[in-house]
Design brief:
The protein is of the alpha/beta class. The protein has helices at about 20-25, 40-55, 65-75, 95-110, 135-155, 170-185, 210-225, 230-240, 260-275, 280-285, 285-290; strands spanning about 5-10, 30-35, 115-125, 160-165, 200-205, 255. A six-stranded mixed sheet has the order 5-4-1-2-3-6, sandwiched between helices. The longest helix is centred in the middle third of the chain and has 21 residues, at about 135-155. The relative contact order is 0.17.
Length: about 290
């Protein structure tokens, strides 16, 4: 029986009542899911930790989060040293381009993995695009879509089953996600999610290879929406081929707006068009060179 692991993480924040300041900092709330067959997860995990050691010379427990790279970049832009109390202090002597190359190589592992699927859901925090919904309701839309999608993908593989893992969150958000999980299963007929294990698992980030993959993918989508060049590079070359498509269309299936509506679907379509219209010379850029 093929067993699949689905790892999910977020990038950006969402709140029901969103001030202009909040929206400026968090224009998007993105969630990613990275789906891997268990055997591929074992193989890629070993490759990931070897790459971490060989390329970066850091311990397995030392994190390389997507957000760390941009925090390091901002410190360098301001000519600041890296405070010892920052969680990315251990990366202070690594070049930004080397860290970007590490992420690229990790995502290339996924690109070359046959069992890998990458799924995205996205909420626009603009008050005109998304009305003030409770976090629980937004989370239910996000998780409901990816569970529906994971079930469809599992049905294509005889006798397969999928187990979901979420990254650790703030206690209030974890409680919210647990309640959402319970409600989705309580309100659904037994056969609706027959291929998804009826349990919700939270991962301790530094020890979870899958959680780090989901972190990178969610961060890339968030960066793409802002048209950041490195994000566009990764999305086009490593991630896009792994997004599930229905009738050759990813929009509304492997990547969709939450809540679903035609206006925001058109807006997301425009973002994707801008991503694929970018010329390679404009998104293959060096972060280190930008600091000179």
């Amino acid at each position: 029986m093929p067993v699949f692991f689905a790892f999910s993480d977020e990038s950006g924040k969402y709140k029901k009542e969103r001030t202009d300041k909040f929206i400026l900092k968090n224009p998007y709330y993105c969630r990613s899911v990275v789906l891997l067959e268990a055997g591929d997860w074992i193989k890629l995990k070993d490759e990931f930790y070897h790459l971490k050691t060989d390329l970066l010379n850091i311990d397995h427990q030392q994190e390389v989060r997507w957000s760390y790279i941009w925090s390091l970049f901002k410190h360098s832009q301001k000519g600041e040293g890296i405070p010892k109390n920052k969680p990315y202090f251990h990366l202070r002597n690594h070049s930004l381009d080397l860290l970007i190359d590490f992420i690229r190589k990790v995502l290339q592992f996924l690109s070359e993995c046959r069992s890998c699927h990458i799924m995205f859901t996205l909420t626009f925090n603009d008050r005109e695009k998304t009305k003030p919904l409770e976090m629980k309701e937004i989370a239910k839309y996000h998780l409901g879509h990816v569970w529906d999608l994971a079930e469809k993908e599992m049905i294509k593989i005889p006798e397969s089953v999928c187990i979901f893992f979420l990254n650790r969150e703030e206690p209030a958000l974890e409680k919210c996600l647990k309640e959402v999980f319970f409600e989705i299963y309580r309100e659904s007929p037994p056969e609706k999610y027959s291929r998804i294990k009826d349990s919700l698992n939270f991962e301790y980030f530094p020890q979870s290879f899958g959680a780090q993959l989901a972190d990178y993918c969610a961060g890339v989508l968030n960066g793409c929406c802002r048209l950041y060049p490195q994000s566009i590079d990764f999305f086009r070359n490593q991630i896009w081929p792994k997004i599930p498509k229905e009738k050759n269309e990813a929009l509304g299936y492997g990547i969709t707006e939450i809540p679903k509506n035609s206006k925001n679907r058109a807006y997301l379509k425009g973002i994707l068009e801008n991503i694929f219209a970018a010329e390679e010379k404009n998104y293959r850029v060096s972060l280190d060179a930008k600091l000179k």
